[in-house]
Design brief:
This protein is an alpha+beta fold and about 375 residues long. The protein is about 30% helix and about 35% strand. Strand 21 and strand 22 form a beta hairpin.
């Protein structure tokens, strides 16, 4: 082979290599233009009867709890109760220094005595001038002045009586008494302290009714009024108490996003002490079928919880809104939005979108 032939062969080989490289680049570009079909982990949905009962931890609270305060201002000279004491209606709780109040009563009594004497004098003058006028010895104008003076004295006497009643009431207000039977849960003032009108001195929890205060999630708002409730005390777990929902807050707590609910404990006595830990068990009257879905399968982009359902024919994704009854530590109970036997994506849903084609991995 001469030199010229070798050069021609080398050139031919170079052209073949270039053509192969160009073809490979075109194949890579075509592959890059084709969408990548992701492989996804899926799970087949199975509906089963969901739990019909759930227990919530709460605390025993009184139905009525009142802050007691004086209706007049003054200095406390005596406090008769301490926290934890039991009181009955009318028992003395605290007493103010009533020196000034007693002086007001004495002043009102003196004012009433003066007004009564003035009224008697004015009434006597009015009767005398009435007789003189009837006999023609007194002018009508003079009688009218005496009658007006008598009416004015009568008004002053009535005002003095009302002032005396008010002063005596204020003297009685110097003693703070329990408004109902109950337990003193807090003492908010001490002897020697000067208190204003209405300032709380003691807090009394009435012992007539006891309630269990619990926090309910929003998934139980609709079922709580119709559910059967039972209360158990941790100190007496073997004895259930019948309970009735009395109050359900219309607004969620800003921190916990739960709703405060108060359940009246039926036939609860002194053994259910205020502040005890209690558990409230709510049982739904109707059993609801639910599918346990992994939490990773649920996505919420501001429009409520959704899952991606895989179409078995085209292997494309469909974003389906679902109703979640309860959230657990690993799964959520879905009651509506998907059907039994459908296949959903259980991992990586935040990177997917509706209408995309996928390759499901084999279901284990």
């Amino acid at each position: 082979m001469n030199r010229k032939t070798a050069l021609r062969a080398l050139a031919l080989l170079s052209l073949v290599g270039i053509a192969g490289g160009i073809a490979a680049c075109k194949r890579e570009e075509a592959a890059a233009r084709e969408p990548v079909i992701p492989r996804v982990q899926v799970e087949r949905i199975t509906f089963q009867p969901s739990e019909t009962a759930r227990t919530f931890v709460g605390v025993v609270r009184p139905r009525h709890e009142t802050d007691l305060g004086f209706r007049v201002a003054g200095k406390i000279v005596e406090r008769r109760v301490d926290a934890g004491d039991r009181v009955r209606k009318g028992d003395l709780v605290a007493r103010l220094d009533t020196t000034d109040l007693q002086l007001q009563v004495e002043s009102a009594e003196a004012e009433l005595a003066a007004a009564t004497s003035n009224l008697a004098q004015a009434a006597s003058d009015e009767r005398r001038y009435a007789g003189l006028r009837s006999n023609g010895f007194a002018a009508t104008a003079d009688y009218d002045r005496k009658k007006a003076a008598r009416d004015e004295a009568d008004g002053r006497a009535k005002r003095a009586r009302r002032t005396l009643e008010l002063a005596r009431n204020q003297l009685e207000y110097g003693e703070l008494r329990a408004s109902a039977d109950g337990v003193v849960t807090a003492v908010l003032a001490e002897a020697g302290q000067v208190v204003a009108v209405g300032q709380a001195v003691a807090r009394i929890a009435q012992s007539d009714e006891r309630e269990a205060l619990v926090a309910l999630p929003e998934t139980w708002l609709a079922d709580a009024p119709e559910a059967t409730a039972a209360v158990r005390l941790w100190s007496q777990d073997n004895r259930p108490y019948r309970a009735t929902l009395r109050e359900l807050s219309p607004q969620a707590d800003t921190a916990t996003r739960t709703y405060a609910a108060r359940f009246r404990i039926e036939e609860a006595g002194e053994e259910a002490a205020f502040g005890m830990t209690a558990t409230v068990t709510l049982t739904r009257r109707e059993q609801v079928a639910a599918a346990q879905v992994p939490l990773a399968a649920i996505i919420n982009r501001g429009e409520g919880p959704h899952v991606y359902v895989v179409d078995p024919a085209t292997e494309t994704l469909e974003a389906r809104p679902v109703t979640v009854a309860t959230f657990g530590s690993r799964t959520a109970a879905v009651t509506d939005g998907i059907a039994d036997g459908e296949t959903i994506v259980t991992l990586g849903v935040q990177k997917l979108e509706a209408g995309r084609k996928v390759r499901p991995l084999p279901i284990r």
